[in-house]
Structure formats: C-alpha cells, structure tokens
Write a structure and sequence with these properties.
284 residues; Uridine Diphospho-n-acetylenolpyruvylglucosamine Reductase, domain 2; Uridine Diphospho-n-acetylenolpyruvylglucosamine Reductase, domain 3; Enolase-like, domain 1; 3 domains; 4-stranded antiparallel beta sheet
C-alpha cells in the first residue's frame, strides 16, 4: 500500500529536529532507520503528516569508549556496532546481539536508537540495555534528561519518552566478566521466540555478580533481578542455574501468538537462559 500524504523533513541538527517537533506537535514523528514506522505508514496504521528523518544529524552518530564508559549515538547503525573493534573489545555482547538482528540489509540502516526507542517488545536491544544497566539520554524543548533502561519501558510500544523528545545517546559502563546473548527464532531475520542477555562476573570460582534480561516474553523487556540473585555466590552449578531459570519464569508473562503457545515459550525461555548462562560462565 501507499502511505497517506506527508511532508518530509531532514534536519541537520538536534535543535532543528526539535524545532520541527515543537512546531507540528502531534502531527510530527521522528524516524531513525524507518523499519518500524514506514511499514506502519504503508499499511495506514500510522498517519504521520510530518515525518522527521534523523539520518543527516551527525551529532547523533558514533561510538566512544572512554574511562570505562561506553557511549553510543542513537543513530549508530547495527552494522557499525558489529564492525567496531573498539566496542567489541569493551563489550563483546553488543556485537553478538547485533549479529542476530534481522539480516545484513536491515542492519546497514537500522539504528540502535530506533531499536530501543519505539518500545517494541520483540526488539533485541532493549533487553540487552537493561542487562547492561544502560542510561538513555533524551533531549526535548525543556532540556536534556537521563532515564535508566530498566525504568524506560512501560508497556508494549509505550515508553518514558515524551512525544517532543528525541533519544540522543546511550551510555553504560563497560561490562566485566563473561557475556552471552542467546536467541531462538523461527527463521533468519525474525523476532525472537525468546532471547536472553547474561553477564556474569567470577571471583574465586564463584559468581560475584549476575545480570539477566529476557526479550519478547512480556509486553516489555524483562530484567530479572531474582534470576541474577539466584546465581550470586554459587559456582554456577546445575542447582543454581535451575533456581535462576525458575526465578526468570516467575518474572515473564508471554502470550500465545504465531511463535507458539504460552507453555512452549516458557520452555524455550528456560532452554535459552540455560545456554546463555553456560556460555557467559565459560567466558567469565
């Protein structure tokens, strides 16, 4: 189908983009890679009289690793995440997850900001950002504010971002220990039936810290503090892993869809989390 008529804006700065947003209010929407918004416009599920393309704003792009902190511009593409050796050295889980998103054609254009900002529960980066305890920087007409990834998601396609705000960057501390992102999907390019992000730090043969987040198993990404707590202090043996899986299953709330019934999704979630824990522990 063909979308409804709209006016196209391509500002060259954050200030210019915010000015267009402020001028047109609810009639304006910002677009990053466009992989979510454009299909909705074509299907007439979204009516956007003023489309603001952020592709020309260079200040929204780039990866920096400084003093143990990683900062990624919102318009940095998945391909750029994959090909950054500096990022892979500081946070290898980022490359591992990005390689599982869609296909190469999509990753050349799809951005990390678009992936985290629209609140799609099937997107891979939101859960990973919760696992990394990332901070999102939002800029609007009243200035800049920061929101923790673990507080950002409210419901499916609903986030803490206001309509007149733009996500400008994502930052997090370089993770320590073993890291793994595990994803089960029906075919290449599909959303996950279940996915798990795990970071484990080992000290004296025991789990010193654990961070676990799940994807596409609720209407928001799920950071499972109880699952991580079940592993802390253990040698990551079978009993501790089973306790972590049980805790995670108590936090998720999957629904039946074309990826399977609820019980199947719970089973897959358990298998995926076990695999992610085992790989992260082997790398710790």
């Amino acid at each position: 189908m063909i979308p409804s008529e709209f006016e196209y804006h391509r500002p060259g700065s954050i200030a210019a983009a915010l000015a267009v947003l402020e001028e047109h209010g609810d009639d304006a929407r910002v677009m990053a890679g466009g992989h979510s918004l454009i299909p909705m416009m074509k299907l007439r599920m979204a009516d956007v009289p003023h489309l603001i393309d952020l592709q020309a704003i260079t200040e929204l792009k780039g990866i920096a690793v400084e003093g143990g902190t990683i900062t990624i511009g919102a318009m940095t593409t998945q391909h750029e995440l994959i090909t950054s050796d500096e990022l892979a050295a500081a946070a290898p889980i980022m490359r591992e997850a990005a390689l599982l998103i869609a296909d190469p054609q999509v990753r050349y254009v799809g951005t990390i900001g678009g992936n985290v900002a629209n609140g799609d529960p099937g997107n891979d980066m939101p859960g990973l950002m919760q696992c990394l305890d990332a901070t999102f920087t939002l800029q609007g007409p009243d200035g800049t504010r920061e929101v923790q990834a673990r507080d950002f998601y409210e419901a499916a396609y609903m986030t803490d971002r206001e309509d007149d705000e733009i996500l400008t960057k994502i930052s997090f501390a370089a993770p320590k220990g073993g890291q793994a992102y595990e994803k089960q999907k029906r075919k290449i390019g599909d959303y996950a039936t279940a996915a798990a992000a795990v970071i484990l730090e080992k000290v004296d043969g025991k789990v010193a810290s654990a961070s676990i987040a799940m994807t596409n198993l609720s209407d928001t990404p799920v950071f499972s503090a109880d699952a991580g707590a079940a592993l802390v202090g253990s040698d990551c043996g079978a009993d501790a892993v089973s306790d972590a899986v049980s805790a995670m299953l108590g936090d998720i709330d999957p629904t039946e869809d074309n990826r399977g019934p609820v019980e199947f999704k719970k089973h897959v979630a358990g298998v995926i989390l076990r695999r992610a824990i085992e790989r992260a522990w082997s790398r710790a």
